[in-house]
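INPUT
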Amino acid sequence: MSEKPHLDRAHGQHLFKEMLRIRRFEARCAELYQAQKIRGFLHLYDGEEAVAVGIMQALEERDAVVATYRDHGHAIARGIAMGPLMAEMYGMLEGCSRGRGGSMHFFDRSKRFYGGNAIVGGGLPLAIGVALADKDLRSGAVTACFFGEGAAGEGEFHECMNLAELWQLPVLFVCENNLYAMGMPLEYAEAETDIYRKASAYRMPAEAIDGMAPIAVEAAARRAVESIRTGNGPYFLECRTYRFRAHSMFDAQLYRTKEEVALWKARDPLSRMQAWLQESHMLSSDDLARIDGEVEAEIDEAVAFAEAGTWEPVEDLERFVLMDEVPE
Amino acid sequence: MRAAEQLAQGLRMTYREACRQAIREALNDDPRAFLMGEDVGLYGGCYAVTKGLLEEFGPERIRDTPLAESAFVGAGIGAALAGMRPIVEIMTCNFSLLALDQIMNNAATIPHMSGGQFAVPLVIRMATGAGRQLAAQHSHSLEGWYAHIPGLKVLAPGTVEDARYMLKPALADPNPVLIFEHIVLYNAEDELDPAVTSVDISSAKVRREGRDVTILTYGNSLPKSLEAAETLAGEGIEAEVVDLRVLRPLDDATIFDSVTRTRRCVIVDEGWKSGSISAEIGARLVEERFFELDAPLRRVCSREVPIPYAGHLEEAALPQLPQIVEAARSLMGRK
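OUTPUT
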């Protein structure tokens, strides 16, 4: 895989469409939440789409992903079909986790998607272990581990930075720094607010990048993955981004100003990408209408799939508490 | 056979040596298996269980870790998810609390929460228990606590034979299995029966048959209970001693069968009484075998204190022979 993104018309449109798929899917999720079709916690990724989409461009099928509870974007960009994702949020048997995980816990074995983890920092040790297995098995695979800047406050973060570098594990650490750990502003929580410097202190290559720019994220991810695959150990990307919506559906957003949100919305990765593609004559109005139609149709289909879903029989409640065998 | 002959034939060994041989066997049998933990390599293990294994298997399979319980236990879970068969050693179960997030929120949860897409075929070994004056941060018995958690299997080898043979089926099991090795038992010595080459990890075992009273126990309370049974026999009381061995899932059938026959039951547990495995067993007996009982249940547990350093206080804090004997006697209406 080449180091730099090849920015032709098709790829430009692909990045745009991937981000649009996430944005529109989640807009529908919010509506369905209001309609009480989706329950529990719902954390939306609005504004952060460039991170998941950019990173996934650098991954191959053999690679692994460990996600957070804000995992819709990761799952969609990783290529998990929207139907099972929506069905999961409906709590249906046809969901990607049989309706047992919900919004925060998407899993897909076929995509090596090791779950949205709802313990902040809790996915990092798992990612280290998946990478350790891949290293021992000489599979050449890389594990992309997503987490927010809030995870840097957890001891597990530091344990894992150290272990990954010490054992030269093939992990791509992707810090989604959206400036707030739920409502806790970064500068109130961390003595060192440049998160990548913490990783640097563990002697791994680490950089801060513009997490609102999919091309910049993709370029950095390709650079990082190439370095990891060459056997140089882990790599750390701090993607500076922003979540446009509330932390979850129960959040009055008292901790930030409307002005600040507006400032970041001016940097919306989706509308900026659209404008740039149009200015560069890589996205015609016909293209836009086509992409729009395709995305809407895909979401409609996903909702229909979820609506047609079935409940897991209650008799199966205890199934998989203990496994009968290790799935192959 | 005399002890020296058995030793020469490799049949007589300590519990510690049995644990070591079990690890060696696991690593020889399965290339996916490896051991990691604090001081398991260069140091040879805090309790010398893994001595010599680094030289034998190399640093990729006997992996020394930094003091980062959450990271290396979580790494074991991740490696198990991705196809390996890790054995993780935690120096003592008090330290396992630093990894409780990973054990509870990931290992015990992911198979069910992923709808059965992922299994966690992982073994976590840890030292448990008191009796060596190690004070309150190295002496607790937390196996009953872990037995609270659905998704885990919890084993407590109380004999050299179980220490030798439990690891293999534990590692072959598709689920996370926690093995609690008692620190006092590491020096216990016994001869292995050459006819036995495996044990099951699903059932309790009757270690001594008796008709009058059942003593349910495990771990280092097993030898104490067997000794108590000898004393009781001298008084004409035949105690049946059941080694629970598997604390989750509990082998109800063996427990109920024994208590139904003897109609009296003493539970001996080095854990604290409140909210303990002994409380759980007692509740099950009351729920399922209330009308078979001829006497109230008795429990001999640790006193509800952090285990103290001073020898006489530590001794007073733990279940001891006289209390077990007294409890059994009282159920027979004797003083």
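end of record. Chain A has a mean pLDDT of 96.
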